[in-house]
Amino acid sequence: MRSNHLLVAVAALAIAGCTATKKNDSKEPAIATLGNQPISTSEFRYVYEKNNGGNDDAYTRESVTDYLSLYTNFKLKVIEAENRGLDTTMAFRRELEGYKEQLAQPFLTEKSVTDQLVKEAYERMKQEVNASHILISLASDAVPEDTLAAYNRVLELRQRALKGEDFGKLARENSQDPSAAENNGELGYFTALQMVYPFEDAAYKTAVGDISKPVRTRFGYHLIKVNDKRNARGEAKVAHIMVRSTPNAPAADSLAAKQRTDAIHRRLQRGEQWEKLVTEFSEDASTARNGGELPWFGTGRMIPAFEEAAFGLQKPGDISKPVYTPYGWHIIKLIEKRSLPAFEDMEQHLRNKIAKDSRSELNKSAFLKRIRQENNFTENAEAKAAALAKASDELLQGTWTYDENDKALKQTLFSIQGKNYTVADFYTYVKAEQRPRTSGTAAHAMNLLYDNFAEESLLEYERNNLENKYTDYRMLVQEYHDGILLFQLMDEKVWSKAIEDTAGLRAYFNQNREKYKWGERADAVVISAANKELLQQAQQQLNAGRHPVSFARLSDVLFAQNKADLTAEGKAELDKLASLLEQNQSLTLEINGHTDARENASIAEARANAAKAYLQQQGVPAAQITSKSLGKSKQAGPDNTETGRRRNRRTSFALYTSELAALAESLNKDNPLAVQITEKKFQRGDNKALDAVEWKEGSYTLQQNGREYFILIKEVLAPTYKELSEVRGPVISDYQNYLEEQWVQELRNKYPVNIKAEEVEKLVRK
């Protein structure tokens, strides 16, 4: 658990931009020293401007000084972590390497190509394409002969289609896309970033009704016929009322949720106010307070069923029928539709998508071309030819090896910025990366491995030199270095300590009791009903103090004629009841004894007592059981059969509970929205109906928002101190703040802070 202060200090400093450079050059001016550790003015300026440069008061003396204080506190913690050797552990190094890999990605790309691809994707997203295709499969590393054969096959199919043969029939009979047998190659509508890039590119560049030239993707060669193009649907803004119901919920719960949703929908159709019903019934806590409104969304951003229903609404104010998703039932109201958002609003989203899209291959090619030049990639053509000539059929079997005593292994194959990569380096790579191949030639396989080795070597060299080449990357790595250390030490000294140090937490709580007090509260029951009749029923049953339970199905226990002896089957049924009563102490059981018309009435009481006695033997308290005789029952058999009479020689059962949820459930059988009951200790502001009456012990009725209310105030509680168990979360958070303040003071004593006022003034702008 972290306090707001810690979130500000840690997130703003350690992650969002609190960065440090390498150890300060003694010749560089320092804005502060922490013990004997200097913080250079240039380092602090970089950090400060990155996090505060856009603020109106960024360069006032107060702003600079306040941020420097936060920064020195942060650096004190990092220095302490380094002095304790936390940056030398294997776990730390492994975590930092993982972050470095992620941070490197933006620096291992060709920005100009990415920019072009982002703009292109945005323009294409304004349109959706409906297309069909024929696929002739081909491995991405196929040999030239196989590639040519596949190309010619696709070319032949294209000629047949252009001459008038039905494209769907050609797809069904020739396409190696398994779905073609059922859909005739039809793909439906799609937009940018939903297909592999070469396919998308060809589809958008082909006119409606035309057939593309052969298109190569990682799946093989395609022919694409464009059937239609239409404007994109854009985005929709909707509100919803949600009733939770998960797919694996019990059938009874699922049915209840559906009935509840249908009841809400009927009320909307009758013209009841949307906002009122959202507030009263929506179970999406994140939207219930704002009328159920959701953020704007477009195709592919929501659960398909929800999305189709939303886009199917035509004009603002239209309301859908109930729609089911894995989250539950939804009623959707259209607020507004709009076209594609502005480029500026979508740019970052598109960049993230493109980084994972097949377009990235275009970027990679351009990037490799640039770093070949920048890093002075130079090949030894003669050594390369000789090395490739060592390919043999063993390479196709994945068993290729080489003579480790061959003098040619020392020859330079290529160099990157003066660093030599030898034939031995390449052969080591080949041995590790070779795999069995069912087609192609050894020479082709060796050429592919060489290209991969050269590319990976270039990328590795560039990655290893990013910190020397790019200041921003070096700063980012240092940020994460310091942030990881800070997290480890803060967890030890503050976060976990505040939770585990129960004695210290209790002492802090006792010393600060004034911070943790209840205001005036009302111990009350609030009943909301759809009409006065329902409210009266609820009041009557509330006064009774026990309410029928419907969640358990209770089986009768049968007896022989003129007998009150329990059978094995009867005891088994009673064992189930005993277990149920043991699990829920709020339940009470009513046992009813019955006889048939030919038996003495007293036998009914004996049967009820026998069942009661058995339950008590199983440990059920007497207070949870009542019994009575209902005497003679009407014979159940329509023809006065023995079977019918035996069904009346029994004990039946009824379950009751004091829990008000059961009262609400029984009143809501016909209408799931009929009655809502809440019982708790309310503070002012918790319930609008309760706030509308005088807070004195007693009962009250009122109308509000079209519903009838009964309020029973059992006790008005004066302001009092809270117990630790009631406010443990906030106390832990405050205790963490306290621990951090104490720790920072210890660090300032251990590493005295000396601020250089003249360097601070260099950052202040008049």
Descriptive notes:
The chain has 766 residues and is an alpha+beta fold. The protein has 5 domains: 1-84 and 470-516 and 723-765, no CATH class; 235-339, Roll (Chitinase A, domain 3), CATH 3.10.50; 376-464, no CATH class; 517-543 and 660-721, Chitinase A, domain 3, CATH 3.10.50; 546-657, 60s Ribosomal Protein L30, Chain: A, CATH 3.30.1330.60. Helices cover 48% and strands 19% of the residues. It contains 30 helices and 25 strands. The strands form 7 sheets. Strands 16, 17, 18, 19 and 20 form a 5-stranded mixed beta sheet that branches. The chain has a 4-stranded antiparallel beta sheet with strand order 4-3-6-5. Helix 18 packs across helix 19. The longest helix has 30 residues, at 471-500. It is extended and about 115 Å long. The two termini are 41 Å apart. Mean pLDDT is 89; it is low at 1-25 and 635-639.
